[in-house]
Structures are given as C-alpha cells and as structure tokens.
Amino acid sequence: MSSGPLSPPPPPPLPHTEDTDAYDTSGRYIVRLLPINDLPSLHATDEYKKGLITKIIYSNDATAGGDGSSSRMLSAFKTNDHPSTLTITGVPLSCWRGVLKNVPGSLPPHEGSENPTTSKSFENFRALRLGSFHVILVSLASSSFSPGPILVLQGLRYKGNIGAIIRTAVQANLFQSVVVIDPVYDANAKNNDRVEAKDVDYYSLMNAPLIDIIYMTDLSEFQSYANSTETNKNRKWLATHLNNSAINMFSPLASPHLLAAAHTSFVFLGSEGVGLPDEFIEDSRCTCMRIPSMSSSINVGAAAAMLIACISMQKLKVRE
To answer: Where in this protein does the record put region Disordered (predicted)?
Structure first.
C-alpha cells in the first residue's frame, strides 16, 4: 500500500530565556480604574504623597446619574488641595467611553448580539455603569520616570496625522507630554485651521486625554518654553529631517542618540509639506535623523511610528 507524501518535520522550538531583566519593558505610566469610594483614602497612599498621580478622569454624565454617595465623594475630593502635578478632568460620556477602551482590562469584548444597535447600547450602558462608580487614574510607574521625553509636533496641518501620532505616542507609554505648535499661516495651504483639543481627542481615538498636551501658537512660544527651566535647557534635541548631515535612523550611529531621546529630550516632527524650520535644525542641541526610503516620501504619521519604535527599542536594551 502506498503512503502519501511525508510531512515536513516540525520547526524547532523557539529559544526560551529566563533573563527577562536584560530588557527594560516598563512603561512610563500606569493607567487603571479606581473605585470612587477609594478617593477619600487616596491622600494617604505613597503614590499620592510622592506626586506620582498625574491625572484623574471622570465621566460628567455618569457621576451625575450615579448614586448620591459617589457623586458627593468625587465633589469633595475635587475641592481639596492637590499637588500641582495632578489634574482632575471631567469628560462627556462619549469621550469617557472612548478613553475606557484605552484602560487595560476595563472593557473586555462584548460577546452578546451582533446587532450593531444592541452592541452600541450595551457599550453605552457598561460605560455609564463603570463611570458611576469609578474614575480613571493615571500615575507614574516610578519617580525615576520624571522628567521624560517630550514629543513636539511643529506646524502639522492635518488633524488625522496629529491624532494618529498622539495615539502612537500614548500607546508607546514613553513620553512625558506632547507639544502641538500651530502652523504658520500660508495663503496657498488647503488648511490653516487651528487644531483644537476636541479634534485631537477624536482623531486619536480618545488616547489624547491620557497624556498632557500643550498647545502653542508659534515658534517663539516654544523657544520660551524650551528655555524656561534648567531641565528643558538641558534636554537633547532629536529631529526627523532630510539633509546631507542627517544620520540614518537604522544605522549603528543612530543608537546613542535614540537612547538619549528615550530619557530627557525633545523629539521633533515637522509639518507635512516643508518639515521643520531652520531655527530648529540649526540649533546646536539638535541631532537630525533621516528615514531611508525610495523617494523620501513618507507620511508624517508613519514616520512618527518608526521613530518612536526605534527610540523604544533602544530603551529596551538596558544592558548587553
């Protein structure tokens, strides 16, 4: 009796290592739900005393419709004195529902009806229920993470690009904050509208509320900010730019600059059309990186994702 063709041998198992300490896989922030009933005791925690808590986000609609005790506890907590590093923000239900999707483990997939209307209604109900008794807490994983890198978006004109970049930045869990600088008015440009926070929230799929975003009107405002503190004055500058002196981002020469950018730095991305202005590129603190490509035509959102990935990879390499 003939037999069929022999099956190929199974592939060898992937190598396994227990040496997980060789890589720094920690993120900058911890994002979690906190029961509103725990707010009165939050002041007594080391996390609060050390100023590690940076954001508390709550649902305006849910807390207004929840039980009276939760609403009173939240109101009392908001009236107390808090560290200047802590911001407490109320958001509408639509925003709350979106932000919940970016809180690890808060909204497991619904396994109910496939009817979109029913699914959306259930999602609203679940978000409203969670918001009636919980807030979202954002805190630094360790005091060693402060200060951290700051992402600077200069002159971007398209809300979708800004939102996608901020979504990537939040999920990379690397940056201290994001600076958005308005584009210079251009009579020939299709879009001269100022990007507003509500646009960034929407186009980032509600990732934006989880990170500090500073909106600036022009380059002079940023220059003042960059020189406002000793920490900012001493930051390394890293920028994506196409010029002859720019370092290939994928080359070994880029590694030390990318590693420095993972710590205390300004990381710059310029506008879709003309890139970064000369005053940034020519600053003595600035190291320019170029992304190798066939025709130097890369969407700024894609460029941001590649740059952030390269910075994160260098951060992972704690030791040989």
So the answer is: 1-22
Distance CA 65, CA 71 (A): 9
Task: Classify residue 313 by its DSSP letter.
Answer: H
Q: Looking up tokens 């919980």, which residue turns up?
A: 134
The dihedrals phi and psi of 97, each to the nearest 5 degrees, come to -60, -40
- Is 60 exceeded by the pLDDT of residue 281? yes
Beta-ladder partners of 191: none
Residue 307 — very low, low, confident or very high, per pLDDT cuts 50/70/90?
Answer: very high
Angle at which helix 116-133 crosses helix 93-100, to 10 degrees, equals 90
First vs last C-alpha separation in the chain: 57
Note whether 68 and 213 are within 8 A (CB). Answer: no
Which residue matches tokens 């991305």? 269
Give Cβ neighbours of residue 277 (< 8 Å, ≥ 6 apart): 154, 155, 219, 270
What is the C-alpha to C-alpha distance for residues 152 and 280, in angstroms, rounded to an integer?
11
Q: How many residues does the chain have?
A: 320
Handedness of CA 117, 120, 126, 132 (dihedral sign): negative
Q: Of 156, 163, 225, which is closest to residue 184 (Cα–Cα)?
A: 156
Per-residue burial over 60-96, b if 16 or more Cβ lie within 10 Å, else e, is ebbbeebeeebbebbeebeeeebeeeeeeebbebebb
Alpha carbons within 13 angstroms on the beta-carbon side of residue 5 total 3
Element (H, E) at 62: helix 60-65
The tokens describing 66, both together, are 């929840």
14 by DSSP, 3-state: which?
coil
Q: Which of 99, 107, 97 is nearest to 137 (CA)?
A: 99
The residue to which tokens 């190798």 are assigned: 292
Percent share of the chain, pLDDT over 90: 57
Q: Which of 295, 244, 239, 293 is nearest to 271 (CA)?
A: 239
